[in-house]
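Possible race condition, two jobs.
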Amino acid sequence: MAVHEHSHRGPGFRLPGFRHRAEPASVASAHVDANSAQAYSLASLRILTGFVFLWAFLDKTFGFGYATASGNGWIDGGSPTKGFLSSVAAGPMESTFHAWAGAAWADWLFMLGLFGIGVALVAGVALRAAAGAGTVMMALMWIAEWPPARHLSDGAVSRSTNPFADYHVIYAVVLIALAAAGAGATWGLGRRWERLPVVRDHTWLR
């Protein structure tokens, strides 16, 4: 009796719906374009937001005549915090902000914050640290303006347009989103920054 060995290899059982199909070139190209568009959009948002902080630093330092009058810049002896903090007229920290107004330590912290956040965003480095510092700054400025108040401490109408979501909240969310998305790689030094040994060892510096 001859025994014939038959191969048991066959086409196998395959479900048509689960067959792997190569992604069409047009779809793959669309994904690449979408990713590129997203990266460029985030990079543009990062740089513009950084310029907001840098411009505030420069104008308050040199008194370009916009928000800070000429001759009243920081280098001219003016205080970057005195005008704003002394005019706080609502909120739970009103008296505290009045006490801080014009203090040297407050001026230095505020200006270093504006400069550091601005440079980090424009360069695309240390976005996590910038997001943390920027969120704290925006939170303090939000409390200083205190949007929930309908009336100021002197009884005048506050003219608040929204009790919560003002531009300080928007800026804080933007900073956090940019850091979470790693938006420093496009049009920035993010990749080089992350390769530095100190940054690799301390992820909060990314």
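Job #2 (started ~2 s after job #1):
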Amino acid sequence: MPEPARDRFDVIPHSQGRVGAHRAENPGMHGWFVLLWAAVATVVLIAAGIFLAMLAMGRIGFDATPAPTASPTATAAKPALDTSFAVFVLNGTTATGLATATRDTVVNAGFSAGSVAAADADKQDLAVSVVYYQTPADKAGAEALASLLGVSRIAQSDVYSNDVVADQKQLTVVLGADLAKNAPSVQPTPSDTATDGSGG
């Protein structure tokens, strides 16, 4: 094929330089630099994920107030028994021997045997036991006796007084069905009743 004839477009002056659009060479990034940035980004994402997870679970917080530490609860001391009282124990249930067994408990706690008496109450259908005291000054003694016997109620009353020893301050325990479980399983012998000078 014959070569085409040259024209003016084939003649480019050397002083004019390059003509037309051209693209500069793009300097490439080194491989180790890309790897380093990828490692840093991975560590940051893992740390952020751990932080957010612990924050969601409440393991960390922004409250500067320290968490209160648990302290052992102090056990309330039982009131001290005042054995200077005379004690009258009345059985307000049908449980045989309940008053006598309770009298023994009171005497064994330190009360004078001659100042503690047991008998049957006028009624035997009392549901809840009560310790009666005569004056406000006797309330602490009633609370201590109630604690000894497991009685949940105390009340002030002047109905019971001087029933055991004349002119001696007195506490009266009226036993109800809540303490009938304390009655002895064996009925007291007549000799025991005669020794106590009481019934029930």
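Residues 191-198 have pLDDT under 50 and may be disordered.
Logs attached separately.
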